[in-house]
Amino acid sequence: MSYQPRNARSHQLLKLNLAPWRMATVGGLLIGGLVLVTARAFYLQGLNTDYLRGKGDAVSNRNLTLPTHRGQVSDRYGQLLAISTPVESLWARPSELELTVEQRAHLASVLDMPVAELSKKLKREGRGEFGVSRPVTPEQALKIAAMGVPGLYLRREFRRYYPAGEVTAQVVGFTNVDDVGQEGVERAYQSWLVGREGERQIVRDRHGNIIRDLAPIKTAQMGGNLALSLDLNIQYLAHRELAAAITTHKAKGGSIVVLDAKTGEILALVNQPVFNPNNRSNYKPDPMRNRAVIDTFEPGSTVKPFVAAAVLERGLFRPDSVIQTPDNFRVGSKLVRDDHPHPQLTVTEIIQKSSNIGAAKMAMAMTPQQFWEVLHRVGLGQKPGSGFPGETAGLLRDPGTWRPVEQATMAYGYGLSVSLLQMTRAYMAFANDGEVMPLSFLKREPQEVTGERVFSVHVAREVRAMMEAVTQEGGTGQSIHVPGYRIAGKTGTAHKVVNGVYAPDRYLSSFIGMAPASNPRLIIGVVIDEPSDGAYYGASVAGPVFAQVMAGSLRQLALPPDAPETATRLTQSAPPVMPSAGKGV
Q1: Catalytic hit among 74, 255, 301, 417
Q2: How many domains does the chain have?
Q3: Cβ atoms 243, 454 nearer than 8 A
Q4: 423: nearest Cα among 530, 306, 533, 330
Q5: Confidence label for 14 from pLDDT (cuts 50, 70 and 90)
Q6: Which of 394, 402, 431, 213 is nearest to 295 (CA)?
Q7: Cα 519 to Cα 523: distance, rounded to the nearest angstrom
Q8: What's the rounded mean pLDDT across residues 292-300?
């Protein structure tokens, strides 16, 4: 037995018995792979550097949105009605979000929401950035920032605030969480008020902190400011008086419109019930509705001045023409009645005492087409053109479809429908010596507007004198007066339609009037829906609201009196008795 050294034996074991071609193949593959890797690295880092730079930028570079705010909304004197205030909102990037169970529970506690609800909000992988809580309070923002959670960040946004609250809510409207106008002026002038967000390119670290500001991409542009025609002092006054009347008469609701007769500007527009646009936790659609613009009603006797103007314009009657007004007036199979009949009345007395029979007889003296043309010319059956979202045209049917009884009942305000804004605008024809001005919710100067003539100057003044007689002794509105000023107007009391028939105990009480009657500057329309505390006549329910708002508005505008104070303090008498169902006073 021979002995071999241990080292020699080890070398024999390590020797590989491989064919030469295999060694060459393996070596060639290794060298080829190394060459490919080297070539690719040279290509990426030497020739095509944009690729890796783009990948790096995709991780660290971001386009930072520069927030902007909507324009301010103010009244005609610059008092703010809508402003934007900065707030912080919590947003998330799903691709970067790293949230432990403990952090999730803590964040839910900070946001005051259940953990399950928060988890549901955050479960949006691959959908891009999204808002988690908009907005958050300053205290919440500090706690969230202290957490330093990757993928969660605070964004500066703007939230709308309305200094006048419910007083101007239904005119100004409101915006949603994305600052987009939803109702009122905010919606009507969205394209003007909205700002344009800007962008800057920045570099962030892995925790989302900005470490470098690279370059601007798009400049932020603030929204345009808007000056409304509203006079906030008159708006407050109208709001207060309307709310008091609704409470006093236990009414379902109501509206009031104040117009500048010379410019067509809407100085005040108020509805009841109301809502607070600064508290969005319990929005209900009914209080948000701008009733004066959107809702329609049968105008009752407030339409009678247009009947008088129509027959005077055509020369069919004169103000002192006498018309027989018996107890009953038959039109087809229907009877028209006055609860306080007079054997005969002049045209002026028909308006003063609000005779349904007299109005019906005047209307029947015209053809349906002639009567329709007058109502259409003053804007009935057409949108009033205020630009307010949802404004209605009301209902004025084609005259070819009228039956004789319908022509008669339209003379005292049944069988057609109007909005309060529409009807108040129509009264401009009497205030402006026959011209109707276009409406505006925006401030305008007198020289910026021209009116449309609908009546001659002579006829408009004659009818205005008739309406002034309404507020004097013997008129249905003799209890309505404003010390120092002559008032012209018309009362209206109409039965409401319930389930297709006129309800005997549900009313719409209205009054539309103007002052100073010698040269009217203001027109005010008031309607109270379903007063239920006993009184329901237009003079006793809507009249006092008109008088209080008119008196305060005339003082606000410093308009000189046109009558001695003693001449306006007439003895108040009991209101007239309401006619039977289907009539209007």
Answers
A1: 301
A2: 2
A3: no
A4: 306
A5: low
A6: 394
A7: 11
A8: 95
Tokens of 445: 């100067």
- Non-local (6+) Cβ contacts of 518 within 8 A are 486, 562, 563
Alpha-carbon distances of 474 from 27, 354, 571, 577, rounded to whole Å: 122, 11, 11, 13
300 pLDDT band, cuts 50/70/90, is very high
- What digits encode the pLDDT tens for the residues 412-435? 999 999 999 999 999 999 999 999
Judge whether 89 counts as a catalytic residue. no
Tokens representing 284 are: 């209900």
- Tell whether 245 and 298 lie within a shared domain: yes
Q: Model-level pTM greater than 0.85? A: no
- Give the model's confidence band at 195: pLDDT under 50 very low, under 70 low, under 90 confident, else very high: confident
Burial of 368 (0-12, 13-18, 19+ CB in 10 A): buried
Q: DSSP assignment, residue 503?
A: E
Which residues form the domain of 206? 63-93+130-227
543 — alpha (psi -120 to 50), left (phi > 0) or beta? Answer: alpha
Is 578 inside any structural domain?
A: no
| Same domain flag for 375 and 427 | yes
Residue at token pair 């988890």: 119
Structure confidence by residue, pLDDT tens digits, 545-585: 999 999 999 999 999 998 875 444 433 333 333 233 344 56
Q: For the range 316-320, what are the long-range contacts, defined as Cβ-Cβ under 8 Å and sequence gap of 24 or more?
A: 316/362, 316/365, 316/366, 317/347, 317/362, 317/365, 318/347, 319/346, 319/347, 319/348, 319/462, 319/465, 319/466, 320/346, 320/347, 320/348
Q: Is the pLDDT of residue 473 over 60?
A: yes
